[in-house]
Fold this sequence. Notes:
This protein is of the alpha/beta class and 553 residues long. It folds into three domains: 19-99; 133-258, Beta-Lactamase; 264-429 and 485-544, Rossmann fold, CATH 3.40.50.300. Helices cover 42% and strands 22% of the residues. The chain has 19 helices and 19 strands. The protein has helices at 3-16, 20-46, 51-71, 75-98, 114-126, 151-167, 200-214, 259-263, 274-281, 303-312, 349-357, 372-379, 397-408, 411-415, 442-448, 496-503, 507-516, 522-531, 537-544; strands at 133-135, 141-142, 172-178, 181-188, 191-198, 225-233, 236-246, 251-257, 291-297, 321-325, 336-339, 363-365, 387-393, 418-430, 436-438, 458-460, 464-467, 470-473, 482-493. It has an eight-stranded antiparallel sheet, with helices on one face. It has a seven-stranded mixed sheet with strand order 11-10-12-13-9-14-19, with helices on both faces. The chain has a two-stranded antiparallel ribbon with strand order 15-16. The relative contact order is 0.07.
Amino acid sequence: MPLSLLTLASQESAVLVSIYKPILLAVTFLPWAWLVSSKLDKDARFYHFAVTHWNTAHLVAGAAALAAGLFIPIFWIGWPVALLVLLGPVLVYWKYRNDRVPEEEKFRLSGEGIGAALERRRSAKLTREALLRFTDSADRQRTPPDSDNPLHRVHMLAEDLIGPALDSRAGFLDMLIAKDGAQVGQSIDGIRYKRDPLPAEASLSLLDFLKDLSGCDVADRRRRQTGRFSLTGPRGRTIVNLTTQGSSQGIVLRLDFDRAERLNRAYDTLGLLPPQKQVLDELQSGPGRRGIVLVSSPPGHGLSSTLYALLGRHDAYTSNIKTLEREVMVRHDGIDHQQWTGLAGEPEYATALQSILRRDPDIVLTDFIKDAETARVVTDPGPDGPLIYIPIRAGSTAEAIDLWMQTVGDPKRAVRSLKAVTCQRLVRTLCPQCRQAYQPTAEQLARLGLPAGKVTQLYRANGKVQVKNRIEPCPVCNGIGYFGQTAIFEVFGIDDEARKLLAKGDIKNALLHARRNRMPILQQAALARLAAGDTTPEEIVRVTAPNRKSDAA
Length: 553
């Protein structure tokens, strides 16, 4: 072999066995493999992205990059090409992810210095064991205390209290703190479920922690206080409304989760039957938009949601709508929500309400009226006054009317401008995933008062689903069998004949007159829900049986 050929071959062999090329490839591929397997895969699973598709894209990119690094003859071209191929899916995932996650969770390129980076890493270490991040009433995020800090135990106790409640769809948590400990419960679809009790010392520390988050006076454990904070966890962001007050039994604490969102229902989704909706629709606009509407329910049966839905159906930009509430739970755009606290120096509720009525509003929402002076202010405008919605805690339409008459003190004055009375109950709706259909017998239909020829199928609560060959608790309702609630109504429209009877104090015959005119009673509304497959006979009996006790406060 000529010398020149031997020299060229030796030079090519040197290129092939050059040590820096495999090192560069390893430095490129090893961090990429760690990033994809340890970070991006877990991130995609956490946010429920298409994990299989993204992993496939990364594997294909890895194979293509390896081929480029090995088979492109000029290494200094093949290596940058391999690097670009590897980064392509990573950058695409970055953009895809940032478009779909909360602002605080987005990936960012940061120009922070080494000190800031170390501080951020230290904070991340402290939050490693914490699932929930709390933000106080001043919108400041609280960093979870270090495990050596005594407050760390309180933070984790708050997580243990709130986390399971959110996982189980609880609407609120309540806690009664006494000398011997705290009794804890949570409400799911209107049913209160007991939780494990807490020791007295731990529950008081937890109370102070939550009150501090909410902007309340930690030292004052007797006065009624309200506040709010937020938290972020695996289920996203949750707004928490806190209410606490001392009582003869101990300190009462209540945490409502996303209360405004839960209470804000559209009028058309309340569940009114067509005849009931017709009565209320006549009061929505025009000359019929006058007088008083009593809106009633037992405690815990959706009264606030119905009030805000009735208020929200009016056009706030063409109508002058005002409220006077002790606590504003839902705010509608265009509505003048006014809060009355009853603190020293503030006018009495009757005086504040009279000031509103003198400004000639079109629609007014009051708070609960319990004194004769406020009742006099409300009834003064008479039948030509504004449309006024008044809430009343009552178990029936008759009870609501009776309470209203007692408050006013004069039946004729009480019903002079009365246009309608509503009463409602909340029933749990069946879980759509696991409800179980069955064919009722003729005897069952007869007991329920349902027509045998028209109703051929009913549903029962199940709470179980079959996964392959195993029976497991339903993942949608957590094995309860119900998911959510809906309302059943009784709507009593007051005509001239009913008004005459009520003015004499004859509530019974006034209601009989309305039923003869085909007013659907509460039980008929419940049966309509049953026939539609929304709920069960057991649930109807639970909420409509005489002398029933409320399941939620």
